[in-house]
Design brief:
With about 230 residues, the chain is α/β, with parallel strands linked by helices.
Length: about 230
C-alpha cells in the first residue's frame, strides 16, 4: 500500500510572512514536519507541495521530495483538496499509484512520527476512510454566548439558570481538529472532493503537541516550549 505524506507549503501567508519557513528553534518551521514525516514508518513518500522555488530548496535540503511546483491556479489561498488532487494526479501520471494521503500542515511543529503512524494504523485497522487528529476542548459551547448588541444570548439552548451549577466533568467530551494530521483514502479525495470522509475517526493528541502556528504570538509560545523542552 502506498501511503503518501503531503506537506502543503504555499509561500503566501497573511498573519506571518513566509510562515512555513519562519524560524523556530533555529530551523524553518516546515523542518519539524518533514523530520517527523521521514521518521514515520507508515509513509511511503514525503512530498512538499509548494509554489516557491525557495521553499522547494529548503524542503529538499531537509530530505523531502519536491517533484513539482504548484501551478498558478492553486498557488494562493485555495481549498487544500485541490492541492492534494494535483499531487495525486501528478504522481499517478508518472505511474505511481496512491492509496492513502496523509496531509501534514507545516504549522504543527510538535506532532510526532508516532502520531502519524497511529493515525494511519487506525485507518487501516478500522476500515474507516479518514482519520483526523484532534484535541479535547476546555471552552465548552454550553458556556458560550452570542452577542445581540451587548446582550448575551446563549449559543446553545442551555437554560441559563443552570449555568452556575455546570461543571466541566459533567458535560459531554468534545474535541476539535488540531490541524496536525489528516489521513484520507485516495478515492475520498479524488471522487468525493473531501478530506474528511463520511466514516471519519478521531485520534486524540495532547494539547502541547496540538499547537497550530497561526500568529506571531503562537510562534513565540512554540519557541518558549521548544526551549524548555516541554513537549511530551
Amino acid at each position: 500500500m502506498n501511503v503518501v505524506g503531503v506537506i502543503p507549503a504555499r509561500s503566501g501567508s497573511r498573519r506571518i510572512k513566509n510562515k512555513s519557513i519562519a524560524r523556530l528553534g533555529g530551523f524553518p518551521l516546515m523542518y519539524y514536519t518533514i523530520r517527523e514525516a521521514l521518521k514515520a514508518k507508515t509513509l511511503s513518500r514525503v512530498i512538499v507541495s509548494t509554489d516557491s522555488q525557495h521553499y522547494a530548496e529548503i524542503a529538499h535540503n531537509h530530505g523531502a521530495e519536491v517533484p513539482f511546483l504548484r501551478p498558478k491556479e492553486i498557488s494562493g489561498d485555495c481549498d487544500t483538496t485541490l492541492v492534494l488532487k494535483h499531487c495525486i494526479e501528478f504522481l499517478e501520471k508518472k505511474g505511481y499509484h496512491v492509496d492513502v494521503v496523509v496531509t501534514l500542515q507545516p504549522t504543527s511543529p510538535f506532532r510526532k512520527a508516532e502520531d502519524i503512524d497511529a493515525c494511519v494504523n487506525k485507518l487501516l485497522e478500522t476500515g474507516a476512510n479518514s482519520v483526523v487528529s484532534v484535541r479535547t476542548i476546555s471552552e465548552h459551547p454550553q458556556w458560550m454566548f452570542k452577542l445581540d448588541g451587548d446582550r448575551m444570548v446563549p449559543f446553545t439552548d442551555v437554560d441559563t439558570a443552570k449555568l452556575g451549577g455546570m461543571i466541566f466533568q459533567d458535560l459531554p467530551k468534545l474535541v476539535i481538529p488540531n490541524g496536525a494530521i489528516y489521513v484520507t483514502r485516495r478515492n475520498v479525495i479524488m471522487k468525493e472532493g473531501r478530506i474528511y470522509g463520511r466514516d471519519c475517526r478521531a485520534y486524540v493528541m495532547p494539547r502541547d503537541r496540538s499547537i497550530d502556528i497561526e500568529t506571531k504570538e503562537d510562534l513565540i509560545i512554540a519557541g518558549a516550549i521548544l526551549e524548555r523542552n516541554e513537549v511530551t
